[in-house]
Batch of 4 targets.
Target 1
Amino acid sequence: MNPPSTSGARARLETIVKAYDVRGIVGDALTDEVVEALGASFADEVGAAGGRIVVGHDMRDSSPGFAEAFARGATARGADVVAIGLCSTDQTYFASGSMQAPAAMFTASHNPASYNGIKFSRAGAQGISLDTGLAAIRDRAGDYLDGGIPPVAEPGRIERVDVLADYARHLRSLVDLGGIRPLKVVVDAGNGMGGLTVPAVLGEAAGLPALPLEIVPLYFELDGTFPNHEANPLDPANLVDLQRAVVEHGADLGLAFDGDADRCFVVDERGAAVDPSAVAAIVALREIARVRALGEDEPTVIHNVITSRFVPETIEAAGAVAVRTRVGHSLIKGRMAETGAVFGGEHSAHYYFRDFWGADNGMLAAMHVLAEFGSQPAPLSRLAARFTPYALSGEINSTVEDVPAAYTRIVEAFTGRAEFDELDGLTATGLTSGDEPFWWFNVRPSNTEPLLRLNVEGEDAATMAAVRDEVLALIRA
């Protein structure tokens, strides 16, 4: 690669290298030249000269070209690239774990079509953040953009491998769906990678035996322009088509995947969204029961600061240890490794599994829900209600010009009425007594935007709404 003719290469890298991944607008800060430099730098950071790096990509128009540019940079520095082609993000985790090789996935997840990005893993699907190597990758890539990538004596090679069938078999080995009652399931892939993985894992596309599932596909065509709706199920507007289809088809439930299919959202038979905290509690119970039956007396389960209070209550009632942690992909992965946790759940619908190298896997979470739901006769709405006893606000974002001032107003207003902790942003837990209903809220400043993110939970809807409205008034004053 020749040195670039334009200036500002390092400034471009600063804008696209985020806390846990690379993310930017295609053709602006994110170009083939930048990606090639990042490929070379990543190979250096993980010591891949003479070894292997897995490279996969989603269905965005720019993804195949970026994957090739990354491979050029990595092979120039001596790494052999295992190109697995079109895949979900959790497929790259599978390849990284099963091959014990570092991996790079080209995706912008749920972001609009104009974006792309890279999710990095060390061997064994270990996460990489700014503090654990991403900053070094960024800085070295800047050097390569300034001065060119120095080739090594023995450049690497590119091998193309299809891991989809092995991935599907591995997930089937972790959750047995063969004995559940027949279920009709609408799946909205959002034109993302779920359109590839769902037929392989839940259907027969990978050559596996049929399951007692009737899959009704919605937007399974791989299309990185997202012609139907954004592949971001966290936004309720993007669940509307799935909710309507579940009711129209008389389905038992619906599943919605984001663009790179590493997150899964669940809709019940009435079309109502099932809270991700309820999913976390359901999966936690299953994983706790499984490992306790194998002799693990006090397994650990991770949950972040904005999951429902019912999640740690469920974990502890099942005889496990609940560990509360900050929000964030790499942070959760790190805590999974540190504690040996069997499972980790985030309210954003990321679910992490020890038996999947501590990485997150939305498909695996969906399979646990199908297994639990399909082993009992009640409708999903009734099962979900058991795991959603409290009232949650959902995350509410407010644009705030002076974030520290808003933060201070909140602290002053609730001093004497709540206990505070600052594990992640500010969490205030009400100093309630007697028959007073409990409440808590968390306010987290965004790392990249002038936003405050609010989550509130109350023992009942009225309590939650009162706290929510008071805190929002303080934020937006």
Target 2
Amino acid sequence: MSIDGMPESKTDSGVPPKDLPAAAQPLPYSAFTVWQKRWILSLAAFAAMFSPMSSFIFYPAITSIAEDLRTTVSKIDLAIATYMVVSGVTPAILGGAADTMGRRPVYIVALSIFLAANIGLALQSNYTSLLILRMVQSAGSSGTISLGYGVISDIASPSERGLYVGIFNIGPNVAPPLGPVLGGIVTSQLNWQWVFWVIAILGGFCLLLVILTLPETARSIVGDGSISTGRIYTPLIRSMTAATNKTVVHQHKSRFVFPNPISCLRLLLFKDIFIVLFCNGIYYATYCCVQATLASLFVDTCGYHELQAGLIYIPFGFGCLAATYSWGRLLNYDYARIRKRRECEIAETAAAYFHDEGFPIEEARLRSCFYLVGVTAVSIIAYGWMVGFSVHAAVPLVLQTVIGYTITGLFGALGTLLTDLNPSQSSTAAASANIVRCSLAAASLAVVQIVIDAVGVGWCFTILGLLSGCCGPLLLLEMKHGQKWRMSRKSNTPSQETL
């Protein structure tokens, strides 16, 4: 059985089709078993939860922290801004390191930094320490999402990659509904220090699981997963088993290469990749604006207190979670349909996993997302006016669910396509996406309240809705011409490959 519960294809199970000559026998993309891949994906999703969770669980504690540290809320807000700045830069370093030195050692380093930062945040008692340790916390957690996309590229073939991305995104999308509620309960029942103790405990547990059970997946080190390695690339449990059984393993000789965080920005020079990164950034900026203004808008219009303001994040989060799995399955379906239509009989050979120029991967990933583009724009505009007119809270909350579903579905489609376009440097590509989206989100969050104060909630979200709708023509351009641009990029024709 495959990860989505469907029977595995003959190719995925390693049984070659009978009508192919021996020289053309397709090989399975990954040597990991289905249950191994499920566990690896679960760990990657668990680790990816900490970056958004560290932000959302922090929000309800802002006022308590400001009072306890004898400072202002605006200064505590600066800790949010610096957190986002570091979140934009760190994945570029960790993503490049993971592509060259392996996923497992980078996971261990990142989660260790995250654990130490949270312990420090729980013990500190002054504003300067808070500001510095929040940046360290961001450095440890923000790279886990780009690392996860690298792992997916390692273990999942294109035919199943859509669902893998969808399931992986459950991790980050747990944070919006759970984080504010958990932060509000912990702060009100215990104290704000326990906010950091809670995520320290969760982070430490994740680090322990990684050390004990996560195998190295980077194809540059373990190939399809069948190459045994020693030292840090081997899970501790397997190392102890190997020592007991006196198993000989291959000692991978790797040298440290300091990652260049600027290298991921080179991807912006390619037209097909630029469109994916830009549209993903626009949707993320819109996502952040909706989330950042949610509590304050409902406090103003409905008079909610802090815990109620935390609970109103649940409908949005429910929409996000519903989209992760359902849209992942749809991406797999679209891929299979396009592949069948184009009669790619040997689409699962090693070369075709990286989408030879004849396969329209852009069409396979984007053909269904235009429904989401239209619904996203309309629902964002409607949400702004419903909040502006102070209608019953049920109406904007239903629209919140729709927005969460559609934007998360778009994240899944664009994230999967970005991985497909950069299979050999997927973590680096995810890092470039993080830089673009964090930059656009930071700029949007800096002005969203100013725009609301100037023109009102309705017109502010009308602007956001129209801006997100403008991504539709760009994605159509990508679907129609992306394959040609990709072919030009692979043929190294500088006059055509860059903007």
Target 3
Amino acid sequence: MKLTDISPAIALTPLDGRYHKQTADLVEYLSEPALNRERIHVEVEWMILLANGFDGNGNQPIVEGVQPFTEAEIAFLRAIPEQFGAEGIAAHAAHEAVTHHDVKAVEYYIDDQIDKAAAVLGPDTQLNERIKTLVHFACTSEDINNLSTALCVKQAMEQVWLPAFRAIVDHLAAKAEEYRDMPLLSLTHGQPATPTTLGKELAVYVYRLNRQLKHLESQEYLGKINGATGTFGAHLAALPEVDWIAVSREFVANRMGLTWNPLTTQIESHDWQAELYSTVSHANRIMHNLCVDVWMYISRGVFAQVPVKGATGSSTMPHKVNPIRFENAEANFELSCSLLDTLSATLVESRWQRDLTDSTTQRNIGSALGYSLLALNNLLGGLNSIHPNAAVMEHELDANWEVLGEPIQTAMRACELKGLPGMDKPYEKVKELMRGHEISRQDVERFIDGLAFDDETAARLKALTPATYTGVAGTLVDLDR
């Protein structure tokens, strides 16, 4: 048995196979049928604008000789993309098998549906053989493609990716607040350093991710409809009295809900896509950093994992609970970034007025966001399965009294500036005591007592412990947004 002979066809990529359930929501917006459905939508709405004019009531049709569509005819046309399902997908594929052109196949598919209009609306409907001329009127394929792609990506981001991303940010924000005052030993260069709080460290990620979220929420999605090389040449040749620039702006901005791009070649220049994918890639990398940090916190014992009943951590070591969700997220963020970076780099280039490299490249947008969505799902699952191990955190802090060298030597500097004796070379004196030695609370107190601190400063320093030396970390959590 050859696997290629099995029906239905076996998925080649894990996004459509092993991970299908986790990424299926993107199929609604970034699959090939989703793109074709959006193409049909754009074509139909263009017809309606040309027939019924700006005000939508048919008083000023844009194309002379076309009667305004009735409400019933408009509803019929709009139902074509709305009802585009398995049968429609097959019919479109049949046309494309002949035309070898996906947008031309869309045009013929709409023609097929118009043939059915008389049976629904009656023999007097304008939706007949003659009106087929209005389908794709004065359009180049890229007029339809760029708008359809923008709508698909916009909806995928707003309906699927951004909600999953916000769920990560919201979870981290809630945990940052919950753990705002929970002391944590810092490690800089992997060595014990000034303590912080777990909440403050999570708030750092909240702040970083919120910056990217703001960029994404203000992201523009551009579109154009201006002909074969962006000059409205065919439009003016056919109907020179029409203000085609105004028509284009109306259609893109008001009918499609996109940002109108007035200056293009045959293609919309894709700069907005490069900006979007670059920002998503940046957000991916921040979350990748989070995955690595949490993985190491788990390894260190700062976070404990909640075992999943029945799950196997190792085929040979029964005790293991592996941080696989974070590892899965880490790997899929990397795959997503590689695709997004390629999209960002290549889509902004086109040979003169048009080449076709962008066409096949854009078919990978779903994969790029799919790997990121898979990573988001795994990251959230991982975050929901961990909790702080207070005993480990307390032990780490109590075992590293040398981290109080920083506040002591800084206080010595302040006292030296005030003229107190014996406070010279504070860094060097503390370094001699602290560096390379195991230090206890008693060692710290003896050192403080051996210096001529004023009583208030000495008391303040002696009251410090590694667990209380966290500055205003808890207060900083309030600034994470």
Target 4
Amino acid sequence: MEITFEYIKMKNFKNHADFSSNMGAITNIYGRNGAGKSSIGDAVTWLLYGTDQMGSKLEVKPIDQPDAETAVTLKILVAGKEVLLGRAQNKTAKYFINEVPEKATAFNEYVETLFDKDLFLSMFNPIYFFTQNWKEQRAQVLRYVDEPLNSEVFAEMAEIQAKLLQEHLKKHSLDDLEKVHKDRFKKRDVDYTKANERLATLQEQLEKEQEGKESIDLTAIKAEIDSLAKERDSLDEEYHKASAAIQKRNALLSQIDFKREEAMKQMKALESIKKEPIEENCRTCGQGLNEEAINAVKQDMKKRFSEGVERGKQLQAELNVLKEQLEELPEVEMIDTRKKSAELDERIYPLMAKRDAAARIGRLETEIWLASENKANVLKERNESQELIDSIKVFRNKQAEVMVKKVDSLFTTISVRLFEQLKNGEMKETFEIEMDGKPYSKLSTAEKIKCGLEMVEVLSRQSGVIVPTFVDNAESILKYTAPAGQLITAKVKAGDLKVEIKEEAKEVAS
């Protein structure tokens, strides 16, 4: 979209009581210092934004007429259509679009539809762009520059790093991937230190365990222990068998003695019954017993004797059974195996100590192997994260380089510094314009204007917006490439204010 100025009128604006002028493809304004050349540019920005050309607050009232109403009218051509913009201010501001009064919000909204404020000021005044904060300058230039595609950046990287990064970017964004692996690297770095310390501790323990010890054949030691333990168990088993047999024999002997004693008692009881006299008188009253009572006593004695005999036979039979059982038991000689067993234990215990030492060494060797594996795995993960972090750093650096090439390709004499490399190799965003190797701050007035005009050309080409450009102090430049839009110059020249209009192509102005 192209916007041109056709006519401007100022009333009571700074030192202009009443000024009006048409504008052409080139509008040259001449006059001595203080004649009001710069005020014409300020009138345009005051009308649009209420500021001077640098975007600062502006006092527009003439010093000698504080109560006068200030007014600026600007006829512009927008895409072939004429629009008349106006602003007047005494105590309050008034706005007009095509002479129709409008509220400030409606006026401002209309202006915003034409162009972005910073874009307009940067293209209208070649110096304005460089007065902004570097971040604003950077954002304004990059607004119209496409960020490099990943494929463009990968093409600039080493193949192995590009492939590594491409694979991981399938799951995470670059920023998230960097966060993940910076966190993992930090943790694995701590884990690696701990794993190293753990391995060193285990190796030290192994050295102490092996110190002064001969080489141990664990298999042979276990076989010898098993053999000796088997021999000792055999002795114990033999001892327990003999002990059990003796206990059984002694139990039978005890039973035989008990039965024999019981049988002797039974025999004595029978002898007693035999010798028992038959009482012919009652033991209670002393009266003589009749024959029937005496027979009853005799029958009782006979019965008790018969039962005693049967009981004696039974006891003898039981005694004979026990004797037979005793005869069937083999004679067992009790052998004291404790001494032999103790001798075997004396041989087993040192072997068990060696076995346990070998087992501890074996466990330590296993733990060392596991610790070594863990250390290697932790180191691998740590190095993988470091490799990815380095690849991301390279990606960002290459991305910055590609972006710089893209931006540099927009300019002819200007070079742009978008990044600065930190000591750790990372790129930090910055923005600095240079011309012929000199930073903008070191340029002369003429060089700054030339630099600004080239920036105007780039912003216009990239945004697709063409607006007039006002070059103040134009007398300081002998030759420069004119901008794509209207050119308005202000040059110091003896005499009163004078406006000269040229309707001609303007490849080069002088």
